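Subject: Re: docking follow-up (zinc ion)

Dear J.,

Thanks for your patience while I sorted out the input files. As discussed at Tuesday's group meeting, I've set up the holo structure prediction with zinc ion included as the bound ligand rather than trying to dock it afterwards. The sequence and the ligand SMILES I used are pasted below, so you can double-check that they match what you have on your end before we go further.
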Amino acid sequence: MKKNKFFNIGISRVSLILSIINLLLFHYPFFRHVFQNTEGGFNGMVIVTSLILIMLVANYFAFYLFLYLGRFVGKTLIAITFILSAVGLYFINAYDIMIDETMMGNVFNTKYSEASSYFSLTGLLYLIFLGLLPATFVFLVNIDYGKLRKFFARIGISLVILIVIAFGNMTNWPWIDKNATVIGSLLLPWSYTVNSVRYQMHQRENNRKEIPLPDATIKDSKKSVVVLIIGESARRDHFSLYGYQRQTNPRLKARESLRAFKAESSATYTTGGVKAMLDYTTTSKLYEILPNYLYRNGVDVIWRSSNWGQPPLHIKKYYTDKDLAKKYPSIDPTHDDILIAGVGDIVKSSDKNKVFIVLHTSTSHGPTYYKRYPANFEKFTPVCRSVEMSSCPQQEVINAYDNTILYTDYLIDNVIEQMSTLTEWESTVIYVSDHGESLGEKNLYMHGVPKSIAPKEQYEIPFLVWTSDKNVKFKNNDELLQYHVFHSVLSRLSVSSPIYNNEMDIFEK
Ligand SMILES: [Zn+2]
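The structure tokens for the complex came back this morning:
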């Protein structure tokens, strides 16, 4: 009887004990990483304290929820997480691995015989002391589950605490964003559960069949090429072409037959913006995207990327910056110069009369703008060199960002230069950003605020078009959408298709 009484504990206290055990047993590598990547001082303290609080409350929340709703099943699941976390921690410490999505992909594709060869006596000790012991505790306690009213109160309070901490720390979001992959991979049991789900979801996404568009035909044999440069986080009001008082577009300003249209992005995040540029209409469905469509209908399609997040591509010539670094060893692969290398040559050597090239850049991606351009583009100084953007004076964040726009100006201009040497070809260069960027206005940084409530800095984007033929006429559009890309590209490549929509073509026929 005595023993029974000792183990009779309220659900709230059990959840808290489990949450503390989870924090203490499994998070030494996590906090080692956090300490190594904060700059100390008051802000560093805020980050560390917030992370401890969030972890305690979030795990309390999860354990409480599992135990209350699952009872014995909940206990079993929690016990399993302790065992898996012990194994995970062993691998983190022994092999310095990151439990990210790729790693979970490896786990799902590994045979037991391969995996077991990594395990050792130390691993067994981890398993017993950090896994089986706390798992036994979970089963030994006799939980007093309490009333449903209490359940809602506790769950509600922990949610409120989480929201308050998250929003109280908004200025540290860029730090979290920058470190998300690593700290996320060290958070147990979340790293392996969340990344397993993400892996499975992406597997499904990649296998998702796109809805095919009706066949298209190429109308003539004129040689024509369109280069679509997809910008990253480029906001319109920091381009001098659109009236910014700083000279961020010295090269493009001098280009004849370059048109600068105002445009609005359809999302404030990369995957949404990129999809809208490749879709033929506003849709959340996966229709055949522009590069796949053109490739299937006989156009030579090349995609080069230092970024990610496009819908699944079904083309032959896809190259990442790493692939290109091997091809162009003399070019510094850390900046987007690598994407524009030899673009003119690949057009010349094409065996087709119609060529479509996509350059998916990453130039203005935060938070470390200062790393995104070569040293000779550091014209606006001093620049913020911290990932904790809010710890820099706002002007330093803006200076670093403006240098990325200055570098973008060079990149676009260089592509135009390469195209203008192709005298046999009719060429078009289109530059559209995926979304905008906040630079500390209203205490917001970077992007990703839902479009309906986002500030205009996050969705007002540049849409630049250059044509080699000076006689090409544009319609009088006040403002464009990313969906204009699809139909305008069809038009410039003389591709005839039943889904072509003249209203969405920026060119006069
Ligand atoms: Zn983006």
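A couple of observations from a first look. Residues 41-70 form the longest helix (30 residues). Residues 219-504 form a domain with the Alkaline Phosphatase, subunit A fold (CATH 3.40.720.10).

Let me know if you'd like me to rerun anything.

Best regards,
T.
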